[in-house]
Amino acid sequence: MVGGRPRKLDVSAQWLRSARRAAASTFTAATALSLMLAGCATTAESASEEAPAGLTGTSPNPSAIPKTNLTALATDLNSPADLTITPDGTVLIAAGNQILRYRADEPLTEVIHDLPATGAPGIIDLALAPDFPTDPKLYICYRTDTDIRVLPLTLSADLTSAKLDSALLTGLPLPLDPSDIGCQIGFDSDGLLYVGTSDGGDPNAPQSLTSAGGKILRLDPETAAPPTGNPFADRSLDPITKLIYSYGHRSITGMAWHPVSHLLYAIDRGPGREDEINLIVAGGNYGWNPASRSSTSYATDGVPMTDLAIGSARPAAYSSGNSSQRMGSATFVAGLQWGQFDSDLAVSNLTGPRLLFMHVTGEVIGQPMTLDSVPPIGATSALEQHPNGSLLALTSEDGPDRLIEVRVVS
């Protein structure tokens, strides 16, 4: 979703460069962690509590564990799906068919746009152009009743309106499970656009190099052309094949680039089990193959997320095993203030009640641990790190949702 910046590392290049330098000086092969976030009240005036530092499991150095305050910045949000943050700290939120703007000390405001009307909750992911605001584009994944599209919008200078440009991609498959995201977008440090897709319930799509389903695609954000280095661009005249960067995925729900190594990690949500985090390499096959069970019906029982019978399949860096945490968007948290969590991967999840913080070293991702806390925040749908170093999260609950700030306190 929204972290090149962590997860969609496209929000504040200048800030991230300094964060990367700081992270590089402290990055170690430490314990993987899962932070049990503190709960908060439903109003900004009353929602500020400090999480204690008691850990379950093996404890890292207590002095390196950050203490956090939680504050509700905005409440009464209707089905928020994603957020992105401009270099000046303005937060843009996708909520149904709306784009909302949050600024401190201002009312939550709708950004007027000219997207076509749809009965579906249309806007499902956001990413700012890497050199925003010089390039004032906001890229979105947009769900219609028949497909998913990647569309650029041009934002006005005051962020009050957005004008639709020509679509970059159309015809991406809708997820079989309506609660799945179906599309994730983000930019690498070279300014190339990556699009993670769902397999759409087609058992043949993940392993097919002519289908956009179950893929991570890479393209030029201005022309939609395949950039030099796309692994299959010279092997076929098929336009989809030329865009494929990796394949064998089920449902990409998050992407994040490591702030030091710049390697891409992707969340691939399993069918009620085996949520995966994968280190993505060009041309990599990540082994999801429901066609091994049936090529005509989408049967997933007994189908492994990574089918190692496929000789080229790459093992997952992390798997949740027989359960599913319903992992969503992810972002690397950078900054010395995060102590033990500096350069760890923060992952949202719909099962709640915690955000997952996981230590990443190459293709090794450690098992999460939990930091005990006061009543939990609940399910979350999206995460982004703010230029001030705090972490912003969107809740995803049965009822009005909130934009939450997680700030480290000294």
What features would you describe in this structure?
The chain is mainly beta and 410 residues long. It has a domain at 13-27 and 78-338: Neuraminidase. It contains 2 helices and 29 strands. The protein has helices at 13-26, 239-243; strands at 34-35, 55-56, 67-77, 80-85, 91-95, 98-102, 109-113, 123-128, 137-143, 148-155, 161-164, 169-172, 183-187, 193-197, 215-219, 244-247, 252-257, 264-268, 276-280, 318-319, 327-333, 344-349, 356-358, 360-361, 364-365, 370-371, 380-385, 391-395, 401-409. The strands form 7 sheets. Strands 4, 5, 6, 7, 8, 9, 10, 11 and 12 form a 9-stranded mixed sheet that branches. The protein has a 4-stranded antiparallel sheet with strand order 3-29-28-27, with no helix packed on it. A 4-stranded antiparallel sheet has the order 13-14-15-16. A hairpin with a 2-residue loop joins strand 24 and strand 25 (364-365). It is globular, with a radius of gyration of 20 Å. It starts with 12 loop residues before the first helix and ends with a strand. Residues 1-60 and 371-375 have low confidence and may be disordered.
Brief write-up:
The chain is mainly beta. 5% of the residues lie in helices and 35% in strands. The chain has a domain at 13-27 and 78-338: 6 Propeller (Neuraminidase), CATH 2.120.10.30.
Point out poorly predicted stretches. Answer: 1-60, 371-375
Estimate the helix proportion, in percent.
under 10%
Provide the residue-averaged pLDDT. 83
**Name of the CATH superfamily of the domain at 13-27 and 78-338:** TolB, C-terminal domain
Give the number of DSSP strands.
29
**Class per helix and strand makeup:** mainly beta
C-alpha Rg, in Å?
20 Å
Morphology: globular
CATH topology of the domain at 13-27 and 78-338: Neuraminidase
CATH architecture call of the domain at 13-27 and 78-338? 6 Propeller
